[in-house]
Design a protein that fits this description.
heterodimer, A: Multidrug efflux transporter AcrB transmembrane fold, four-stranded antiparallel β-sheet, 11 helices, 51% helix, elongated, B: 291 residues, alpha+beta, Multidrug efflux transporter AcrB transmembrane fold, Alpha-Beta Plaits, 2 domains, 9 helices
Amino acid sequence: MSKNFLKILLILFLTLVSFYISLPPEIPVKFNIAGINIDKRFYRPGLNLSFGNFSIKKNFDLVLGLDLAGGSHLVFEIDTTNIDEGRRKVAVEAVKNVMEKRVNLFGISEPNVQTSSYEGRDRVIVELPGVKDTQEAVGIIGKVAQLSFAEVGSKEEQGLIITNLTGADLKSSDVAFDKNTGKPMVLIQFSDGGAKKFEELTERNVGKPLPIILDNEVVSAPVVQEKISGGSAQISGEFTLQETKNLSIQLNAGALPAPVSLVEQRTIGATLGSESIGKSVGAGTIGLIMVMIFMILNYGKLGLVADVALFIFGVITLALYKLIPVVLTLPGIAGFLLSVGMAVDSNILIFERFKEEKPKRNLADALEVSFGRAWDSIRDANISTLVTAFVLANPLDFNFLNTSGPVRGFAITLSLGIAISLFTGIVVSRNLLRVFVRESKR
Amino acid sequence: MDWMKYRFIYLLVSGTIIIAGIFSLFKWGLTIGIDFKGGTIAEYSFKEKISTEDVSKKLEDEGIQVFSVQDTGDGRYFFRLPALNTKDQEKIKGIFQEVAQGSEELRFETVGPSVGPELVKKTIYAAAIASVGILLWVAFQFKSLKFGVSAVLAMFHDSFCLLGIFSLLGHFYGFEIDFLFVTALLTTLSFSVHDTIVVYDRIRETQSRTGGSLCDIANHAITKTMVRSLNNSFTIIFMLLALMLLGGSTVKWFATALFVGTILGTYSSPFVAVPIIVFWDEAEKKIKSRK
């Protein structure tokens, strides 16, 4: 008895902890009874522990995917035709790093940048949550931004001669305003090596224009008045403020080692995202209530036990989503709802078996036998579903399978749901039923 | 109950769906969405009603081809366009700003033509790996290739029927095969086996305890698992029905595909997977007795 009692206590404890974690961070309570107005907000504090230098901080917030929170999913394909086979991998990685830097400088929180290579096509996937102006972001991320300085050729040698001073020689760049005209411009600071090159270049070209080239286009060609030492220069073309800001970001992050093109863009507005959340939560709640009523109608008190187990399944799953954290997407919600069906199935299997076994032996034995027999089916069936979910989720990041996107979100919540349902179906339901059967015997 | 006696009815039902599916697949094929063939779907909301013809004309004048515009109510419009770049996207925004005040981009998804073929391949790999995994698992658990193969055959039956049904739905209701449909298809694979295993498990248990002819055992197993199968399907169907009726536009078709898949998966376990084993077993015995 005491052992079972302990188990029930443990389950209760687990449920309470999960329930706490699964609560939203802010719960508004608003009602009006007999003229008494109650309008309060309860806050669920996060975890904030510290032992000496060691501290744990968790805010228990749900991480929402782009389709729910709004944002852009961008796929860039890298043109690697001019890069040797051997250096390709390095170049792809470099593109990714530069893009990541640019996104961070653009000021987007929690971007997700990853590469994907498949059959000679190299891609970088950039996920930007909460971005309103996608075109702007694409412009910043997808531009090569190769900066170089050129000399104007002499009479014999017409045209521009590109020097070895490039964007790679920069230490930093910044936005500034021209003192005289008030126009925005980009202020650049060269590295030590770059400063030296610049000094030599300006010395050679006093009185001549010094064209500054960005991606094969002359953006400005200031005339050099005198030798410039100290390693700073300015780029002032016909820029808008936004353009100078973007250029500064690109220069700070560095040029892309290869040109890229946007092959896929999926942008979901925040309005549509929050609508989807509302609709899914509504659909989920109604579906859950229908399932719960169905279970009670079919199995009576046993159904009630199953509903309690289902509730525990729900809060544990939600708590785990927050703890891991799982990025919740629309297909992910569908995966969760489907796993609810699977969780109930364990109970149905046991109850149907229980009906068969009940006339043959006493209640407690019948229950244990039902659990034993049903377990084989539950295990075998769920493992086969897990196999599929595993292939879809592709946790080992195999290149020949999907490495991102909606399918993965679905598979992750589905497999997590199955794993938790095995636990709640066997451990939680079993112990609850044991207590229940014992009580009803008395 | 003698379920196996009505084997020809199950064959008739499955045969009808499969033949209708084959017919539709050959005649109309599948309506492929932008995920696989490339293109753009964009959803905008306007404060006031707009004339779809005017807007289409304006877009076409700017060199943006319009495949279709759909009024989805509440001042919302759904555009199907070819694959576009960000400059075109900017243009569209500009045109809409002109047409009506307060236009909002709800969704803009554009996929280049190079993405699709890769997805098709990856999906086929995923389905193949999952099928082999399941085949091996079932064959191993039931220590019989017969069980494994028929479970996988029933699984293919379900996915083929689903494909056929959605070819029809695509033709008559404009349903498009997208990423999520493929997910639903793969989920159907696993759900189908999930259900089949429960029946197989009962066959295995009865076999080891009482013995008897496989046909009798199969009948017994189906009778004993029928209520469970139906009840379980009901709970999943409740969840999916709620999603179909109340979920957002993106989830609706996905839920519908899962819904059809669930029904197929439930049906195929007793009425496809089990008859295959019984038939196989009888054929095996006949061949042996002839020798």
